[in-house]
């Protein structure tokens, strides 16, 4: 690739400013993963020790891989598959590296298919909260509300479809007119709502219990599979290894510091996950509820609390709006890579690509949607369709994709190109970063994998 093409923006457009990129990437990172998934997997895996291991994964793997991914995207300036291909060619490496990008795009398709179903729950819960259905309700009534929601395929279908239509609508609008316009407003509102909730939690009298649960480590509670969950979640929450961040990187103007941006995004994401935990667990404890409730945690325990607290009606509405906005800016980032891929590959318009890819994802989502009701007992290796999708992406495809990106950047890409793109001197920090990609990431990912398959015991 010659200098002239590299100076040009991608054919899809480019972020209008450095801040816009940071906002968009943080919006992609902050989502259901932070507010719905992090609290419940932390709850299931015993809290503190899990959180510590997760933070370690963010620092040692998450940030280095994020830097690598944004860099690869900006150097390639295309969809993840083509970007990997272009950058590999430039370094005289095998064109097969493009499959790392391809795997990521596939993972994005899989993730969005169930992500949209869960985001649909959030929409449904806004309506339930607005109708005041949680007020004074018993645990039984709340559980019934949840069971009725997930038990009705048509109901889920309605919300899942609505979510997909919104997402398609934004992505069809393009980088500046669709993505930027939406993210610019939704993200700040989301953050404001979250901060309001934390202030509320401070007031419950159980804030300290929340702190202890999240930060006091009990290592006995952390199993190898808990470690894989933490590792997979570090990738998931930062939107790594599916091309989402690589794609957003392709729209970054030149001379934006990738390193600073990555550190900012990862810190903001982590902070928001911890804030979500600090908003949720005090409420859970204040009402004598269990932290290990699983995927239903925020949908079953929180409404109960909302129903019994002063201003709970409003807090409930705020909470589910916040959840929806967070999910929405992430859903956009999941649809963008496959859409860009199709635009480049088939040379069709962005509008058509959005509709076609969106339809395929919508269709795939039906599997997850049905696994909460009609297909509840259709199981593969003990997992239903939704659990399988979640497991296959977060615990297999994302770690593998992360491994591919780390190995490519550290071992295959030419150093001169890396230095040129990152615009940093060859400092100690640079060497540490390369070491994280070259050694820590491959060893850690392999160890955790082997451990789970039971070949090795710690
Ligand atoms: N990171 C988002 C969350 O925490 C979800 C998400 C968006 C994502 N894009 C992604 C996850 C790409 C993995 C890969 O909810």
End-to-end gap:
46 Å
Helix run count: 19
Report the top-level CATH class: Mainly Alpha
| Mean pLDDT metric | 91
Estimated structural class? mainly alpha
Q: What ranges have pLDDT less than 50 throughout 5 or more consecutive residues?
A: none
CATH architecture descriptor: Orthogonal Bundle
Strand content: under 5%
β-strand number? 0
CATH topology (fold) name: Hydantoin permease
Ions and ligands = tryptophan
Round the Cα radius of gyration to an integer and report it. Answer: 21 Å
Shape: globular
The percent range for helix content is over 70%
Question: What is the H/E string?
Answer: HHHHHHHHHHHHHHHHHHH
Profile the largest sheet: none
Q: Can you tell me the number of structural domains? A: 1
Describe this structure in words.
With 458 residues, the protein is mainly α. The chain has a single domain, classed as Orthogonal Bundle (Hydantoin permease). The protein is 77% helix and 0% strand. The protein has 19 helices and no strands. Helix 8 (153-172) packs antiparallel against helix 16 (350-370). The protein is globular and about 65 Å long. The structure holds tryptophan (TRP). Tryptophan is lined by residues 28-29, 31-34, 108, 111, 236-237, 239, 242, 244, 330, 333-334.
